[in-house]
Design brief:
Keywords: Methyltransferase, Transferase. This is Class I SAM-dependent methyltransferase. One of its GO terms (molecular function) is methyltransferase activity. By secondary structure, the chain is an alpha/beta fold. Helices cover about 40% and strands about 15% of the residues. The protein is built from nine helices and nine strands. The radius of gyration is 19 Å and the shape is globular.
């Protein structure tokens, strides 16, 4: 990479919300993408326990971005996550109200029902992470693509996950040749697609690294960077947990 790239996730990011999710491998990139894009409107399709969504929200808040975030989900589960009880929504709702009240909104509904609430060409960053069959992912893309601004970004999770009847990988392979895309292969994969158009004269470094004058060498370097960034974040969490354990008072009777 010709640019000296030192994004905010390396300098200061410490997740406020941690739950089990394969999205854990992409937290630094998610944080940095929001910081780079500075979206006026961010929409996530499929939130579950909120790991990716609250990473986006945390970046909005800590980087002082004046925008709105919407998480769309029934919060009831599906065949891939299994059904879950009300505790999932209560946990997500509680964290949202505590940390992001005023710019982040949970829309408890089906994706198709939410379409009418968004204008065309209005969404800067769209994250597609709902039901993972080929049919579901392709329908989500077709339905929501018109809502994304020219030059906007669409994320696809699990584009390397070949398990059960997951089909995000298949859909991603089909559309990669038709759009500007970048693929992260680690952590079950994350696809990044950029819609044509928009003013690109002031593109931030991250977008330049993904989409401008990309070579195999530079793409590999960026992928490796975010693999290491994820490991760095994981190691920091382990160190913090070990430190907390060492500071616990010892029971004199033991």
């Amino acid at each position: 990479m010709s640019l000296v790239y030192m994004p905010p996730s390396i300098r200061r990011f410490e997740p406020l919300h941690m739950v089990f999710s394969t999205w854990v491998d992409h937290l630094p990139f998610g944080y940095d993408l929001v910081a780079a894009l500075r979206p006026k409107m961010l929409v996530e399709l499929g939130t579950h326990k909120g790991l990716s969504y609250f990473t986006f929200c945390q970046s909005m808040k800590e980087n002082e971005i004046d925008g709105l975030c919407y998480a769309i989900d029934t919060f009831e589960g599906d065949e891939h996550t299994d059904k879950y009880d009300e505790s999932v929504f209560n946990s997500v709702n509680g964290h949202n109200r505590q940390h992001y009240h005023g710019f982040s909104y949970l829309m408890r509904m089906f994706f198709e029902d939410a379409l009418k609430h968004f204008n065309e060409d209005s969404v800067d960053l769209l994250h597609i992470d709902g039901f993972h069959t080929y049919e579901a992912v392709s329908a989500d893309f077709a339905n929501w693509y018109p809502k994304v601004k020219p030059g906007g970004i669409i994320l696809f999770h699990d584009v390397q996950a070949r398990l059960q009847d997951f089909g995000a990988w298949k859909f991603w392979d089909e559309i990669r040749g038709q759009h500007e895309t970048f693929t992260f292969n680690h952590g079950f994969g994350l696809g990044v697609l950029r819609k044509p158009g928009g003013d690109r004269s002031q593109d931030p470094d991250l977008l330049k690294l993904m989409f401008e004058n990309q070579t195999e060498q530079s793409a590999a370097a960026l992928r490796a960077f975010y693999v290491h960034a994820s490991k760095h974040l994981e190691n920091n969490r382990k160190i913090k947990r070990l430190g907390q354990g060492a500071n616990k008072p010892v029971d004199a009777a033991s």
